[in-house]
Amino acid sequence: MQGLSKEETARRRQEYGPNRLTPPKKQSPVIRFLQQFRDVLIYILLAAGFITALLGHWIDAVVIFGVVIVNAVVGYVQEGKAEKALDAIRNLLSPKAMVRRENRSSSVPSDELVPGDIVILRSGDKVPADMRLFMTRELRVDESLLTGESVPVEKSNDVVPVTAALGDQKNMAFSGTLVTYGKGEGIVTGTGDDTELGRISTMLGSVETLVTPFLRRTEQLAKMLAATILLLSIGVFLYGILIKEFSVTEMFNATVGLAVAAIPEGLPAIMTITLAAGVQAMARRNAIIRKLPAVETLGSVTVICSDKTGTLTRNEMTVRSVAVDKHVYAVSGEGYEPMGSFLLDGTAVNESRVPELSILAHVALLCNDASLENREGSWVLSGDPTEGALVSLGIKSGYDHETEMQKWARTDVIPFESQRRFMATLHHSHENEAFIYMKGAPEAVLGRCNSQLVGNGEKEPIDHAYWQNVMGEIAGQGQRLLACAYRKADPAKQTLSFTDVDSEMTVIGLVGIIDPPRAEAVEAIKSCRRAGVQIKMITGDHAATAKAIGAMLGIRGNGSVMTGSQVEALDDADLQKIVAEVDIFARSSPEHKIRLVKALQAKGHVVAMTGDGVNDAPALKQANVGIAMGQNGTEVSKEAAEMILVDDNFATIVGAIEQGRTVYDNLKKSILFVLPTNGGEAFSILAAIAIGSTLPITALQILWVNMVTAVTLALTLAFEKSEDNVMQRKPRQPDEVILSPFIIWRIIYVSVILMTGTFGLFLWYESGGHSHETARTVAVNALVMFEIFYLFSSRFYVASAFSQKGFWGNRYALYAIGILLILQLVFVYAPFMQTLFETAPLGVLDWVYIVVVGSSVLFFVELEKFLLRRIYGRDLVM
Q: Pick from 799, 774, 513, 494: which is nearest to 669 by CA?
């Protein structure tokens, strides 16, 4: 084939455009920055800032506005990083391509390719466009970034059905994949956005970022609080003027004080810091969070959809079974690391006492073109993954690769070809011995054998029925089969021909190879089940392999496996029914993965999706939490994800879920701590207006209390450790409201206690003839003391605070109390603070009253907890 002419190439380039992925439209930096303020939490902060500024408290206002700006900058930077996902996909395209035009071959920039071009592929090339292969010679292509398959795919020019899955299209080479062996030629069928890589890029750009459950709930909470405060302020203002006949000025000041008391201006900042503390805690556990709200979302995950290759498995082929005469041995060890042993019925055997095992391992080691190298404690493969598994097997058997290659020099070779499906090598030793070694597909090898190796190195006629049964047994476990054979040769023989291996070979045995599950993933899946989290495996691999790996991992569902073609045949409604029953999905394309994630989300699930390839990126972005692999994951998957596993360890996800649940607990504890404080302040003002009394606390004093307690006491709850039962609970409902009936009760209960003590002390001091300044100073400090004692109770939902852990388990709480007491002493005794806040110095007896009254909240709340434990048990979840 001569290829296109210059004129036709130019015409097609004009028609189809360059072979590049279309970049997405990007917003201007200014618009992106302004959009960071479109958040209800930010609105609350802005409202608090404006109220603070109106009261003339400029320092506090500057601090609040500073928090808003910092949040916006962080969001802006994170959003900018997310846009790199599409850029990462575009960087996967090959920069150069070898093309034949007008019967001349030349290297051209890949973006100049057009449909109809003839492209020549060689080992090591990155495929520059989608192409239909018309000539292949031992061509193998690594398509793992598109399909997730562990081993390179053998390509051919045979016709395949139009409906074939991506991984089964053996006559196609796809843009961005890597040629690992052989050569081939093909006609370009798609360029730029019309390639498989382009389709994934388009999908990734069209997937909308989901609003996390936490943000939805906090937005609802903020709206509810805003509406309540507004209605309450209007009602109190009218009540004071119409019923109590206060002046408009008096009621305006009282209403402003009520609003300041009721608005939890420190809460958004506390929530942000709690999330940030969760990010740091997860980083220490090898989970990097790229988007802050994902910390909490992890805690509400109900389903983890996981890719198989490289996530649940090591992405390192490993020999797991060796079958010789009479016995099938299991092989321990994982990945390419040559550490392991042969096991028979669970008991280790000495392979030197089983000659068949030693001979088979020797053949596997030398009839091989791969090598393994130990680099800083990690074994690195050079060559084909399947051959790497055989090298590892040989070293496990006690052979040194370099030594054996020198002792048994390779004289000639018949390389592996897809038509023959075997490889044969001729070896000579220094003792003038010669052997022919062979490995390959069982049907190709066994057909050339007339004998089999038995105990003590003896031979007997081949038993085909035995080998067929063993093949079925090993293949049923999802393992790829290879057979090993040998024959003695004339020492004078220096070349190897096909007639030398066509017959009279001796079969040694079979090996079963698989990309094995990570040992830690098995335990992690058990932990997820105990925590009520379902696991779904979605892979591009074959159904038999996926089912076998699923069984090893403990992922079974109803025992069936659904393929991508079966997913395509279902409409969305039927898929939503099926997805609840099936846990393993094989031969899945990027579109299938997105549909499955959406189906689970439509059933109300909060979905985490793990993956490492380009084919996983759209589903990672669609999921509530996308989780990418940090070591073996592509940059595309990392940029599309909310979380990156530094160690590529699925078990790290369990730790992240635990931390996410802890973060959510701490967020609720922060709300449970902050809102009663605001409630106590607001109730005190309402009580004063109701009886026509002087306000017990001024708006400026309320702002002081809220500010100093928010930056001290409330922040310590962000660093609370996990409660004991956090991973024994079922996942919370995605639509669960933050203010559950119990939390509302606790807020009202504690607010009444705070109001009673604060306003009661104020009235007592007023009736005792003390000045307004003294009475208010006592009330303010009583409120602060209430919060100090309530902090110990709020650290646990229903567990008792009267324990060593309750009082000493969070050192940050003790530091915060110390700092707060110093601030309050300055508030009471510093002359400039007395002038600014209208406070008065207190005596020792005053402090005794304050401590006694303030400590009452601890005993009242602990009494309530005690009753709850008696009625509902210790595992009550709020």
A: 799
Q: What is the pLDDT of residues 694-711, one digit of tens each?
A: 888 887 788 788 878 877
Options 111, 130, 194, 307, the catalytic residue: 307
Closest CA to 586 of 568, 557, 565, 563: 563
Query: SS3 of 875, please?
Result: coil
Residue 725 in tokens: 């039962």
Degrees (nearest 5) of the Cα angle 827, 829, 831?
Answer: 90
DSSP code per residue over 729-791:
SPPPPTT--SS-HHHHHHHHHHHHHHHHHHHHHHHHHHHTT--HHHHHHHHHHHHHHHHHHHH
pTM of model > 0.85: no
Strand 118-122 to 96-101 pairing: antiparallel
Own/partner contacts of 737-740, CB < 8 Å, gap of 24 or more, are 737/217, 737/220, 737/221, 738/217, 738/218, 738/220, 738/221, 738/667, 738/668, 738/671, 739/221, 739/224, 739/671, 740/878
How many residues does this entry show for the chain? Answer: 878
What's the burial of 845, exposed, middle or buried (CB within 10 Å: 0-12/13-18/19+)? Answer: exposed
pLDDT tens for 804-832 read: 888 888 899 999 999 999 999 999 999 99
In contact, 426 and 469? CB cutoff 8 Å: no
Q: What are the backbone dihedrals phi and psi of residue 210, each rounded to the nearest 5 degrees, phi first?
A: -80, 145
485: closest CA among 356, 321, 327, 393? 356
Residue 557 DSSP label: T
Short-list 646, 645, 628, CA closest to 637: 628
CA–CA gap between residue 778 and residue 766 (Å, rounded): 11
CA 738 – CA 267 distance, rounded (Å): 13
CA distance 51 to 38: 20
Q: Is 724 a catalytic residue?
A: no
Find out whether 293 and 215 touch, Cβ atoms under 8 Å.
yes
